[in-house]
Design brief:
Blueprint: E1 4-6, E2 12-19, E3 23-29, E4 32-36, E5 42-47, E6 51-52, H1 56-63, E7 75-80, E8 89-96, E9 99-114, E10 120-131, E11 150-164
Length: 175
């Protein structure tokens, strides 16, 4: 496998969660970085401070100690060994708020293409669900009608365009 890095201008890291048990709130992270190296190992990191749900008050609450505690835990990381992007499954270790758990993500490989400038690109969509309370994100409020304000289940939707054989360090983040 050739080394591939994320083409940040054509990639997005999104999530969604139920609110009031009746609607879905979506958000994304604007700053992230990662690569698949020659051995097929995937490393990925996102900056929690770049969270955007189109509501600044909610974003501030999510960055605070009730949720991500960005001051003490500024990044979310994912590491997987020997990834085959065409297999449909990616198993690895997800770390949120200093807590690491093994998760399995589903992937869909969308193929390979060469852009007008001669760069080889691969398309990959990754989805997965996690229980936020497993990672210490336990804040919630009970509802009078039963249920809770924010669902425990969070769905990640990651759309990646990967650039083949570029020597960009993993530490570089999209802005």
């Amino acid at each position: 496998m050739k080394k591939m890095t994320i083409d940040y201008t054509h990639s997005e890291i999104g999530f969604k969660v139920k609110h009031l048990m009746i609607s879905t709130v979506r958000g994304n992270f604007g700053t992230f970085g990662g690569e698949i190296n020659e051995n097929g190992d995937l490393t990925f990191s996102l900056e929690v401070d770049s969270i955007n749900t189109n509501n600044s008050d909610r974003d501030t609450h999510l960055k605070g100690s009730d949720f991500f505690d960005v001051e003490n835990h500024p990044r979310v990381t994912f590491m997987a060994k020997d990834v085959d992007i065409t297999s449909g499954l990616i198993a690895g270790e997800l770390t949120i708020k200093g807590i690491t758990k093994e998760v399995i993500m589903t992937s869909e490989y969308n193929g390979v293409s060469v852009d007008p400038w001669g760069n080889t690109k691969h398309g990959l969509e990754i989805t997965g669900k996690v229980n936020r309370s497993d990672f210490g994100l336990t804040w919630n409020a009970p509802l009078e009608t039963g249920g809770v304000l924010v669902s425990d289940e969070v769905t990640f939707n990651i759309d990646l365009q990967l650039l083949e054989s570029v020597e960009t360090p993993v530490s570089e983040m999209a802005q």
